[in-house]
């Protein structure tokens, strides 16, 4: 299931920012030929075709295969570490986070529609994943969104410039719909740590000073949110 969903996620991430429709039949990016059923099998079809279109010989973007593998590994890891309903919900959480993480990493874009889908799914489905009640998840959504919105507002007032994209508070609010307010500080700590590591690794690269370089915080927030699911029970158990 992860491989199949990964195929759709890769198509969405490639087409949506370019203004292309994600509906309709899949087609070759080179010649526009609609793909046949045997050419749509995740990973295997590209390997069989040696990474090229059978008609025009155009190279198949390896991004497809990488996203399919990542999506498949999300499912494998989730069900291996959390068998049963909690594992399936954790996998779903990862599959919903993956396109948001990729879009932010590639385009610094967190679409409101994807964040809304993540939030709605969390409010309706996420309870059994960590055993968090609906009220706690509502509080998590409000607290996460308001905290990041307040930070963005304070930065703008102090520096006179935007220090955070408008999609970040909405994404964290949607994540709160899954994790609840209790686990949210751990998620934000992990996301901030990831951002600091990225900043240190990027130091000295590019022609802009580090303070003026955009950071894909949504990428780190998505990765941290998914990692928080198995880590949070360890913190609760040790307290």
UniProtKB/TrEMBL annotation:
- Offer an example of a GO molecular function term for this protein: aspartic-type endopeptidase activity
Q: Which InterPro entries match?
A: Peptidase_A24A_bac, Prepilin_IV_endopep_pep, Prepilin_pept_A24_N, Prepilin_peptidase/N-MTase
Top-level taxon of origin: Bacteria
Instruction: Report the residue ranges that make up the Prepilin type IV endopeptidase peptidase domain in this protein.
Output: 92-200
Q: Which UniProt keywords apply?
A: Cell inner membrane, Cell membrane, Hydrolase, Membrane, Methyltransferase, Multifunctional enzyme, Protease, Transferase, Transmembrane, Transmembrane helix
What is this enzyme's catalytic activity, as reactions? Typically cleaves a -Gly-|-Phe- bond to release an N-terminal, basic peptide of 5-8 residues from type IV prepilin, and then N-methylates the new N-terminal amino group, the methyl donor being S-adenosyl-L-methionine
Q: What is its EC number?
A: 2.1.1.-, 3.4.23.43
Q: What is its main location?
A: membrane
Intracellular or extracellular location(s): Cell inner membrane; Cell membrane
- State any GO BP term from the record: signal peptide processing
Q: Where is each Prepilin peptidase A24 N-terminal domain found?
A: 1-78
Kindly indicate whether the keyword Hydrolase belongs to this entry: yes
Indicate how the chain sits in the lipid bilayer.
Answer: Multi-pass membrane protein
Q: An example Gene Ontology cellular component term from the record?
A: plasma membrane
Membrane-crossing segments per the record: 69-102, 114-132, 138-155, 171-197, 217-236
Work out whether the entry's keyword set contains Transferase: yes
The UniProt family comment states:
Belongs to the peptidase A24 family.
Report the protein name in the record: Prepilin leader peptidase/N-methyltransferase
Record organism: Sphingopyxis lindanitolerans
């Amino acid at each position: 299931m992860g491989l199949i969903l990964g195929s759709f996620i890769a198509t969405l991430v490639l087409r949506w920012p370019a203004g292309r429709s994600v509906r309709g039949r899949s087609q070759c990016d080179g010649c526009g030929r609609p793909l046949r059923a045997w050419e749509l099998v995740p990973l295997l079809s590209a390997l069989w075709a040696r990474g090229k279109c059978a008609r025009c010989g155009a190279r198949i973007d390896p991004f497809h295969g990488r996203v399919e593998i990542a999506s498949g590994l999300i499912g494998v890891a989730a069900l291996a570490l959390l068998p049963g309903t909690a594992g399936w919900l954790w996998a779903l959480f990862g599959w919903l986070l993956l396109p948001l993480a990729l879009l932010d990493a590639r385009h610094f874009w967190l679409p409101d529609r994807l964040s809304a889908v993540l939030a709605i799914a969390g409010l309706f489905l996420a309870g059994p994943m960590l055993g968090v009640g609906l009220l706690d998840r509502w509080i998590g959504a409000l607290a996460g969104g308001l905290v990041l919105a307040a930070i963005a507002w304070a930065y703008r007032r102090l520096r006179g410039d935007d220090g955070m994209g408008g999609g970040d508070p909405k994404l964290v609010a949607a994540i709160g719909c899954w994790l609840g307010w209790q686990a949210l500080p751990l998620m934000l700590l992990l996301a901030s740590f990831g951002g600091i590591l990225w900043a240190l690794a990027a130091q000295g690269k590019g022609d802009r000073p580090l303070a003026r370089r955009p950071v894909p915080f949504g990428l780190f927030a998505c990765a941290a949110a998914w990692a928080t699911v198995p880590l949070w029970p360890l913190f609760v158990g040790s307290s």
